[in-house]
Design a protein that fits this description.
Largest sheet of chain A: 7 strands, mixed
Radius of gyration of chain A: 27 Å
Order of helices and strands of chain B: HEHEHEHHEHEHEHHEEEEHEHHE
CATH class of the largest domain in chain A: Alpha Beta
CATH architecture of the largest domain in chain A: 3-Layer(aba) Sandwich
Number of domains of chain A: 4
Oligomer: heterodimer
Distance between the termini of chain A: 38 Å
Structural class of chain A: alpha/beta
C-alpha cells in the first residue's frame, strides 16, 4: 500500500464527490464548498455530469461528480488529480479511480456495492475486497444503512431516506477536515425552510456521518487546512454564468439603464438566460427569442431603444449572429455579445470546454468589422469582465464580444463582493446640448465614439441601419472615399480603446529565457504551473495572461520583446498564437495546444515549460 | 373603429413626418401611397414625434424608414420584426411599426413573422406584397403565383405560394387586414385600427411593382373591376359587394359561396372581426378570383394576451414585491462569509 498522502496539516487538498445522477453529488459538493469558504480556505470547483438528462441509474454513463480543490494558499484550479474520492456506488468508483493519486483515500458507500450495482459498473468482483484498491486507503462506510437507521422514526418513505445518504457522506468529509457543523446546518435550514422534516433528515444524516467517522477512528486524526490569506471582505461562491449575469445587472444599475437580454437557449450559456429570467426583481427585461438571429436582432433593437443590451450564446449560435454583429458595427450601437465557448466545430462536443471561437470573435464577420474582444479568466472574474464589457460597449458605443467557456461557466470560485466604489462608473454618452448642433454620427474627439441617442429623446429623431453612412450626418452615401474613411474610423475607434485598458503585468521573471502566455480561462492552470516552478527554484520563467484581446494592451510588444522564447498555451489549435504572430511578427513563438474538450492540467503545462526550457 | 382626423393629443401634422431624404422608388410605385398615408396616420396618433419607431428589413419596401422623420432602424434582410420586438420590449411606450415585403417577411424572415403572430407583442407590421423580389431584380418570392414567369422561374413558377393572411392567422395573429395600394382611405383607417389594437397587427398591402409585376393585382384593384372583385369587410355589416351591391357571401356546407342577391341584403353572412375561432377569418382570407371576391379591410381583430404588456406587468410585480433594492442586496442574498 502506498504511503497515505493525507497529513494532519495540508496546504491544499483535492476532494471529488461522485455518485449516480440522482445521488445529490452537486449539492453535497456545493455544501462542502460553502463550508470551506466559511473556514477561510480559497477554493475552485468544477462539476462533471453526464450529457444525458437521465442516464440509466447505476451505470458509468450516469455518474455525476463534483471536484473541489481547497487550500490555505491561493487556489486557481480544481486540481489535476484527487486526494480524497467519495464514491456512492461502484460506477462512480469505476469512472473516477484513474483520477485518484497513489496513496489517496477512497470513502465508499459499501452498502451500494451489491452484485447488481457491480454488474452495472462492469466489475466482475467487488473492488472493495478483491485487492484492486491496494494502492489506496479505503474507508468502507455503510452510508445507506446508517442513514436509514438515523432517519427511521421520521416517517419518511424509503426512497427519501436513502436519498439523504449524500449528507452522511458530507458528514464524514466535514469531520475529516475538522469543520464545525453550524454553518452547514444553517445552509440546510435556509434551503429546506419549507420542509422541516427534510431539515431534520439532512441534519441527522450529517450527524450520523460525523459519528461514524469519529467512532471508527479511521482517520487517526482529522486534517486541518489553514485559512488562506485572502483580501478582507464579504465572499460568496459563484459560477461563471451567474457572474456574467450579475455583472450585467451591476452595469445596468451603475449607468441607470434598464438591462435587456435577448437570447436563445444553448449549452453552456443557457444559465445566464435562466438567471436573468429570474431577475425580474432587478428589472431585467428578458426575451427568449425564436432563434439565435432573432435574439441578437432583438438585442440590437433594445440597444437602439436605449437599454443596456446583451445577447448570450455559444459558438454555433455566434455563427448565426455574425451578420447582425456587422449591423451593430456599422450602426455603432452598444451591445454585449457573450460567447460561452464549447468544443466545436458544429455540434462538436457540446458539453466540453474549448477556446476555439477566438478567430470567430476576431474575424467572423463579412466586411471590415472590428469589435472589442475580451475574455474572462476565472468564474469570479466573469463578473468583472462582464461589467467591463458593458462599460466599454456603452462608453464607446460599440459591440463587445465577451468570451467565456464551459470550464468557467460551470466552475465556481470565491468571489469578493464589490463594495461601494469598487466598480468604475459608467458614463453614458448622451449629447447634452441643442439638438440642432448634433448629428447622428457626430463623434467625440478623444475616442471617436458617437453619441447614443434613443427613441424618447426629443429632437434627436434619426434613422440608423446597415447601409454606409456619410461621415457625421449619417446620411446614406455610396461615395468611395467616404466608405474608406468610415472603415478607417471604425477601426481606429476600437484601437483607441487600448489606451484605457490596464497594462499587462508579468508574474515571475520580468524578462529572460521564457515567457509563458495564456488568455482567458487557462489562467488557473498556467499560473499554478509557473508558481510551482518558481517555488522549485526556476528563475527564468515569466507568465502573462491576456484578458483584453482586441485591442491588445498597449505594452504587449514591450513584454513579448523581453523574453528569448514565448510559449503560447491555449485550448485550441493555435488561434491566439496566430493572432500574435500577425500582430507582432518580429517575435518567435512556440505553441502548446490541447484540443481534447478538457481544461489544461497544471502538470501538463509544467512539463511543457520544462521541455521548452531544455531546448 | 372609425377614428376621425385630428382628435389626438399632439399637434403634429403629416409634414412633421416627412424627412429630408429624397424618396427613391420607381415612378408609379405603390410604395409612395403607403408612405404618404403612414405620415398622415402618424400625425393622427397620440404618440409624440420622438416616441414613434419604424423598423424595416431589406428590399424596396424597407427604404421607407429613411423617409419617415422619426426614429428608425433600417436593419438587415428578414430581421425587422426581431429588431422591433426587442425595441418594443425595451421601451414599451414606443409606437413601433415594421415595414417589410413579401420576400423579406415571408421568406428569409418567415420564422420571425410566425413567432411575432404567436407572441402578440404590441407591434404593427405592414407587408408590401408585390409578389416578387423587386430590389434584387425580379426573382420569385413566396407569394409569387403558380405559373408566373420570373428570373428564377423562366418557364413559370412551380411553387405554391403563401397566402399571407392564412399564415398570419394560422400562426395566431390577433389582427389581420388587407388593403390594395390604391385605396388610401381604407389604408389610413386600417392603420389607425392597428394602432389602437393591443397586440401584433398584420396589414397586407397589395402593392404594385411597376417594373416586374406591373398589373399583378389589376383584376382586383382595377377601376372597372374592383367593385365586383373586392369584398370590403366591415365589422357587423353584411358581406355585400358588387357594382350594384348585388352579390353576397353565403355559407354552403363548409364553404363560402358567392351568390347573387335577389332582393337587398337577405341571407348574406355578417362579418364579425372579433370572433375568436379563426375558421371564418381563414376562409375569408382564402377567397380568391375568379370564384370569389378578394376580402379587404379588417378581417380579424380579437383581444388576447399582449406579450410586451405582460412582461412589463411581471417585472413591475416582481420589483414591487422583492426585498432587493439593488444589486448589493442580490449579491448578499444566500450564503456569504466574511474574511478579515
Amino acid at each position: 500500500m502506498a504511503k497515505n498522502i493525507l497529513a494532519p496539516e495540508m496546504r491544499k487538498v483535492v476532494v471529488r464527490f461522485s455518485g449516480d445522477s440522482g445521488d445529490g453529488m452537486q449539492l453535497t459538493g456545493d455544501m462542502f464548498s460553502q463550508s470551506s469558504g466559511f473556514a477561510g480556505n480559497d477554493l475552485t470547483t468544477i462539476p462533471d455530469f453526464p450529457a444525458e438528462i437521465r442516464a440509466p441509474q447505476g451505470t458509468i454513463g450516469g455518474v455525476s461528480s463534483f471536484q473541489i480543490q481547497i487550500g490555505g494558499t491561493e487556489i486557481y484550479t480544481p486540481g489535476d488529480s484527487v486526494d480524497v474520492l467519495v464514491v456512492m456506488n461502484p460506477a462512480a468508483l469505476a469512472a473516477n479511480l484513474a483520477l485518484l493519486k497513489p496513496g489517496g483515500t477512497i470513502i465508499a458507500d459499501k452498502d451500494a456495492f451489491t452484485p447488481k450495482n457491480l454488474k452495472k459498473a462492469e466489475y466482475e468482483s467487488n473492488p472493495l475486497e478483491d485487492g484492486t484498491l491496494e494502492e489506496f486507503h479505503v474507508i468502507q462506510a455503510p452510508a445507506t444503512s446508517l442513514t436509514k437507521e438515523a432517519l427511521k422514526d421520521l416517517g419518511l418513505e424509503m426512497q427519501a431516506m436513502t436519498r439523504s445518504k449524500n449528507m452522511f457522506a458530507l458528514g464524514v468529509v466535514l469531520y475529516m477536515f475538522s469543520r464545525p457543523l453550524q454553518n452547514t446546518i444553517d445552509f440546510i435550514e435556509k434551503k429546506f425552510y419549507k420542509k422541516p422534516v427534510l431539515v431534520e433528515a439532512n441534519k441527522r444524516a450529517i450527524e450520523a456521518g460525523v459519528s461514524f467517522a469519529e467512532s471508527t477512528e479511521v482517520f487517526g486524526r482529522s486534517i486541518v487546512i489553514p485559512p488562506a490569506k485572502l483580501p478582507k471582505g464579504t465572499y460568496r461562491n459563484i459560477d461563471g454564468n451567474t457572474a456574467i449575469a450579475w455583472g450585467l445587472l451591476a452595469a445596468a444599475e451603475n449607468c441607470g439603464k434598464n438591462l435587456s437580454l435577448s437570447s436563445y437557449p444553448i449549452t453552456p450559456a443557457s444559465e445566464i438566460l435562466h438567471e436573468l429570467s429570474a431577475r425580474k426583481d432587478m428589472g431585467a427585461i428578458v426575451f427568449q427569442a425564436e432563434d439565435e438571429i432573432a435574439a441578437i436582432c432583438a438585442a440590437i433593437g433594445a440597444a437602439f431603444s436605449g437599454n443596456l443590451s446583451a445577447t448570450t450564446t455559444s459558438g454555433p449560435g455566434a455563427s448565426l449572429k455574425s451578420e447582425a454583429i456587422g449591423l451593430a458595427v456599422i450602426a455603432e450601437l452598444p451591445l454585449v455579445i457573450v460567447n460561452v465557448q464549447r468544443a466545436g466545430p458544429s455540434t462538436g462536443l457540446p458539453t466540453k470546454t474549448e477556446q476555439s471561437d477566438l478567430n470567430q470573435a476576431l474575424y467572423g464577420r463579412h466586411g471590415d468589422a472590428p469589435v472589442v474582444v475580451i475574455a474572462a479568466s476565472s468564474p469570479d472574474d466573469c463578473f468583472y469582465y462582464s461589467y467591463e464589457a458593458a462599460k466599454i460597449a456603452i462608453e464607446h458605443v460599440t459591440p463587445v464580444i465577451l468570451l467565456s467557456d464551459t470550464y468557467l461557466a460551470s466552475g465556481t470560485s470565491p468571489w469578493r463582493l464589490p463594495e461601494n466604489g469598487d466598480l468604475k462608473d459608467i458614463q453614458v454618452p448622451k449629447f447634452k446640448g441643442d439638438p440642432g448642433k448634433w448629428e447622428p454620427f457626430l463623434r467625440q474627439p478623444e475616442f471617436l465614439n458617437r453619441y447614443w441617442m434613443s427613441p424618447g429623446d426629443k429632437g434627436f429623431e434619426h434613422r440608423n441601419g446597415g447601409l454606409e453612412k456619410k461621415e457625421i450626418t449619417g446620411n446614406l452615401t455610396y461615395e468611395p472615399l467616404n466608405h474608406q474613411k468610415m472603415t478607417k474610423i471604425r477601426e481606429e475607434k476600437i484601437d483607441r480603446i487600448a489606451s484605457r485598458l490596464p497594462e499587462l503585468t508579468v508574474s515571475g521573471a520580468q524578462s529572460g529565457k521564457l515567457l509563458v502566455v495564456g488568455w482567458g480561462s487557462t489562467h488557473g492552470a498556467i499560473n499554478t504551473a509557473v508558481r510551482e516552478l518558481l517555488e522549485d527554484g526556476e528563475e527564468d520563467v515569466g507568465f502573462v495572461q491576456f484578458n483584453y484581446i482586441n485591442p491588445l494592451p498597449v505594452n504587449t510588444a514591450d513584454i513579448l520583446g523581453g523574453f528569448e522564447q514565448i510559449l503560447v498555451c491555449e485550448l485550441n489549435n493555435g488561434q491566439f498564437v496566430h493572432y500574435l504572430r500577425s500582430k507582432f511578427p518580429e517575435f518567435k513563438y512556440r505553441q502548446f495546444n490541447k484540443i481534447q474538450g478538457q481544461p489544461f492540467f497544471t502538470s501538463e503545462i509544467k512539463a511543457e515549460i520544462i521541455n521548452t526550457l531544455s531546448r | 373603429m372609425q377614428t376621425d382626423a385630428k382628435e389626438n393629443k399632439t399637434d403634429l401634422t403629416k409634414k412633421d413626418f416627412v424627412s429630408d431624404q429624397t424618396v427613391r422608388w420607381c415612378p408609379g410605385c405603390g410604395d409612395y401611397m403607403i408612405l404618404a398615408i403612414m405620415q398622415k396616420a402618424f400625425a393622427r396618433m397620440d404618440h409624440a414625434k420622438e416616441e414613434h419607431l419604424s423598423v424595416s428589413g431589406i428590399g424596396c419596401s424597407s427604404r421607407i424608414t429613411y423617409y419617415l422623420d422619426t426614429y428608425g432602424v433600417h436593419s438587415i434582410h428578414g430581421r425587422a420584426i426581431a429588431v422591433a420586438t426587442g425595441a418594443k420590449l425595451a421601451n414599451p411606450g414606443l409606437n413601433v411599426w415594421v415595414f417589410t415585403g413579401d420576400g423579406d417577411c415571408m421568406a428569409i424572415g418567415g420564422n420571425h413573422f410566425i413567432h411575432a403572430c404567436r407572441r402578440n407583442a404590441d407591434l404593427n407590421i405592414i407587408i408590401f406584397n408585390n409578389k416578387i423580389y423587386g430590389m434584387t431584380k425580379g426573382q420569385s418570392s413566396p407569394t409569387t403565383p403558380v405559373g408566373l414567369k420570373t428570373k428564377t422561374a423562366p418557364e413559370g413558377s412551380h411553387e405554391n405560394p403563401f397566402n399571407i393572411g392564412e399564415v398570419a392567422i394560422g400562426s395566431g395573429a390577433t389582427f389581420f387586414a388587407r388593403v390594395p395600394d390604391n385605396n388610401p382611405k381604407l389604408l389610413e383607417d386600417i392603420m389607425m385600427q392597428a394602432y389602437h389594437h393591443k397586440g401584433t397587427s398584420v396589414i397586407e398591402v397589395l402593392q404594385n411593382c411597376v417594373i416586374f409585376t406591373d398589373g399583378i393585382h389589376e383584376q382586383i384593384t382595377g377601376r372597372d373591376t374592383k367593385d365586383d372583385n373586392q369584398l370590403v369587410l366591415e365589422h357587423g355589416k353584411p358581406m355585400i359587394f358588387g357594382k350594384d351591391q348585388n352579390y353576397g357571401i353565403k355559407l354552403n356546407g363548409m364553404r363560402l359561396e358567392k351568390s347573387a342577391l335577389k332582393n337587398g341584403t337577405d341571407a348574406s353572412l355578417v362579418h364579425d372581426e372579433g370572433e375568436k375561432d379563426p375558421a371564418m377569418h381563414l376562409a375569408l382570407t382564402r377567397m380568391q378570383l375568379p370564384g370569389h371576391p378578394v376580402a379587404m379591410g379588417v378581417i380579424r381583430k380579437v383581444e388576447a394576451q399582449n406579450y410586451s404588456e405582460k412582461v412589463h406587468e411581471a417585472i413591475a410585480f416582481e420589483r414591487e414585491t422583492s426585498t432587493f433594492k439593488g444589486v448589493n442586496d442580490l449579491f448578499r442574498s444566500g450564503n456569504t462569509w466574511e474574511i478579515g
